[in-house]
Amino acid sequence: MKAQLKSDLNLQPVTINERLYYIAPIPDFPKWYASTCGLIISTKRKEIKVLKGVSNRNGYRQVKQRQAAKYKMYSVHRLVALTFYDFDDIDYEGRDR
Question: Which residue blocks in the chain are alpha helix, DSSP H?
Fold first, then answer.
């Protein structure tokens, strides 16, 4: 089954540095939001900011989150998909995601 757009999205308009973004909260990531243009936005500190991230060796953008004195990397495209699409937790080869 292909991924379907979520029908219950509640997009919020946010202005950052005079730019307008429409964002939705990322499930299981408190204070992180995904924008409709594919950016990850953090509200962890006083000011709202767009996370820069880094490109991995395959060219995919990644952002990091600190968890219990360690950093964990997350692919931006997966976070955006998790926010805006309904999909199964099993991929086409039968592996858990």
Answer: 76-84
pLDDT digits (tens, 9 = 90+) for 33-71: 999 999 999 998 888 999 999 999 999 999 998 888 899
First to last CA, the chain: 15
CB within 8 A of 53, min separation 6: which ones?
A: 40, 61, 62, 63, 64, 76
> Residue 5 in 3-state DSSP?
strand
Dihedral-angle region of residue 18 (phi above 0 means left; psi in -120 to 50 means alpha; beta otherwise)? left
Question: How does 42-69 read in b/e, with b if 16+ C-beta sit within 10 Å?
Answer: beeeeebeebebeeeeeeebbbebeeee
| Tokens standing for residue 84 | 């805006």
Residue 45 and residue 66: Cα distance in Å, rounded?
14
The CA distance from 52 to 40, in Å, is 8
